[in-house]
Specification:
Helix content is about 5%, strand content about 50%. The protein is mostly beta strands.
């Protein structure tokens, strides 16, 4: 199959200043983030914080971080019903307390927020920099993050992002993660077309351009 590569790599990429708390069963989740000029794989990178106070029952959450509109995928005419998608992102879990599990996965914004449930990777504190992701994902692997039953339509325009999701205990939640070097590859099958998108998440650019201050919606 012939391949056509589309390279979106840049030394600094702004991942957007607004995050979306898609699901938060406690209603008390808070978010923040900063650019990290020192840490990275290699530096700089982006450091994100998610926290919630304790409550009477176990809770769950999904937080999506969309890229800015530079990172939209616009399919051509007759494309791309049969595409598969590859995804990888470097993650450094500095602190994860109160969580039964935290998973990092690919997110697609197309009206709704869709997450590739079960196709990212679980992260745990103290593991150092690790790469999580999956290959060969299809539209049916993405589910509405708020629990709906539809899937994205890859023949229509959509926006790239990534998401954190997990469950946490009655004692509350504290998560500190650094992210770097995200890669998304789209492969059109069986049509002779391929799209590769390489996104480098650099916190220095976020600080210089606008700063990463996620807000709740």
């Amino acid at each position: 199959m012939a391949k056509e590569n589309f390279d979106r790599s840049k030394p600094h990429v702004n991942i957007g200043t607004v995050s979306q708390i898609v699901t938060d069963s406690s209603g008390q989740l808070s978010l923040s983030g900063v650019g990290d000029q020192v840490g990275g794989n290699p530096a700089p990178s982006t450091k994100l914080f998610v926290s919630a106070p304790g409550s009477g029952d176990p809770q769950s959450f999904v937080v999506a971080y969309p890229f800015d509109t530079d990172f939209m995928f616009t399919p051509g005419v007759g494309c791309c019903r049969n595409i598969t998608m590859d995804f990888a992102i470097d993650v450094l879990p500095t602190e994860i307390t109160g969580a039964a599990d935290v998973e990092v996965t690919l997110a697609i914004l197309q009206g709704e927020v869709y997450v590739a449930t079960g196709h990212g990777g679980a992260v745990s504190q103290g593991t150092g920099w690790m790469t999580v992701g999956d290959t060969g994902m299809v539209a049916g692997d993405f589910f509405e993050a708020d629990g709906g039953g539809t899937h994205p339509d890859f023949t229509q325009m959509f926006q790239f992002g990534y998401a954190f999701m997990g469950d946490y205990s009655t004692q509350g939640l504290n998560v500190e993660l650094s992210v770097d070097n995200m890669h998304v590859g789209l492969n059109n099958v069986p049509e002779p077309m391929s799209l590769a998108v390489v996104l480098i998440l650099c916190g220095g650019a976020l600080m210089c351009r606008r700063g990463l201050i996620p807000t709740m919606r």
